[in-house]
Structures are given as structure tokens and as C-alpha cells.
Design brief:
Helix 3 packs antiparallel against helix 5. The chain has six helices and two strands. It is mainly alpha-helical and 185 residues long. The chain has one domain: Four Helix Bundle (Hemerythrin (Met), subunit A).
């Protein structure tokens, strides 16, 4: 799981943006390392956020933006009534299932972005109270928005994880590297 991105190492803007998305995505996922389903679903603060809920929400958000960019139907789209379910595991959902789903979304997003002629291609946004009427955004905007989304939730995840067992982001990076067989520094 990447922690530091050197844009020049990725050859171009597209590679750099994808690397920044992945670094923030990895920070969020790393917060789950070594936790039980019960720990990951707990709410150790006044917030209703949990680590498993943040992972599910982030995977679904990425999937939603991918489907919007592809101009395809999102079969997992939450309704106004079920929106809260995107922040918690429901029914028989498990962390491994959510992470496997997210892995698939990640691979599909990367393939889609790499196959685009350029990042200036745009797609329409749905009409909502928070988007202007007839708004369009570029693929570049999409990637920057995913960095923003994941970074925000990775920060939430850091606080939740530290509240659960005291593990800091630095310790989790070292643990992830040790599990991958990479040096900790």
C-alpha cells in the first residue's frame, strides 16, 4: 500500500493522479489492519462513523463516480432512504467482501482512466441540490475529487483507529510494510 507519491516516478499526469488516488485509498484501507469485524464496526467517538463503514462508503463512492464517468447505471446506487446504509455493513456483508468489491472497482477505474484519450473528456453530473444544473466535469476533476474524498475519510479513519487501540498511521504503515515484506523505512 503506497504512502508517498513522487509524481515524476509515474511518467505523466494521469499516472501521478492515479497514484495519489491510490495513496489516499491505501491510507483508509490500512486503518483496518489487524482489526476484528466487531472492532471495525465500532463507533469509539460521538460520530456515527466506523472503519468498516468508511471502507464501504468509499468503495461505493468510487464505484458511483466510475459509473457516472462511464455514463452507465449504478446498480448499487443508494436511495435517500438507504443512504445511511452506505456507512455501515448490513446483512451478511463483511470487511473482506467490501475490500474485494473495492479491489474490483479500483482495477476497473484504473483501466478506464488509462484507456481515455485524455483527461479533458467530460461527463454530465446528475441533477441534485449540490450540483449546478447541466454541470459537467472532466476526468481530471474526477481523480482530484477522489483524492479529496479519500483523504478526508483517511483522516477520519486515523482518528477512529487511534481511538480504538492507539495504533497510529505511522505504526500501521510499518505493519503493512512488514506484512508485504518491505522495509519499514
Amino acid at each position: 500500500m503506497p504512502t508517498f507519491v513522487t509524481p515524476e516516478a509515474h511518467g505523466d499526469e494521469r499516472g501521478a493522479l492515479l497514484s495519489y488516488v491510490e495513496a489516499q485509498r491505501a491510507g483508509l484501507r490500512r486503518a483496518l489492519l489487524g482489526l476484528t469485524e466487531e472492532q471495525a464496526a465500532s463507533h469509539p467517538s460521538a460520530s456515527g462513523l466506523s472503519l468498516s463503514g468508511l471502507a464501504k462508503h468509499s468503495a461505493e463512492v468510487e464505484f458511483n463516480w466510475l459509473r457516472l464517468a462511464q455514463q452507465q447505471t449504478n446498480e448499487r446506487q443508494q436511495s435517500a432512504e438507504s443512504w445511511g446504509d452506505s456507512f455501515r455493513l448490513v446483512g451478511t456483508e463483511t470487511i473482506p467482501e467490501i475490500l474485494a468489491f473495492w479491489d474490483g472497482v479500483t482495477a476497473e477505474l484504473e483501466k478506464f482512466i488509462r484507456e481515455l484519450p485524455d483527461l479533458d473528456a467530460t461527463f454530465p453530473l446528475p441533477e441534485t441540490p449540490w450540483f449546478p444544473k447541466d454541470a459537467r466535469v472532466s476526468m481530471r476533476w474526477l481523480l482530484l475529487h477522489l483524492v479529496e474524498e479519500f483523504a478526508r475519510h483517511a483522516g477520519h479513519a486515523d482518528i477512529i483507529r487511534e481511538s480504538l487501540d492507539g495504533a497510529t498511521a505511522f505504526e500501521l504503515v510499518a505493519r503493512a510494510r512488514a506484512e508485504d515484506g518491505a522495509p519499514a523505512s
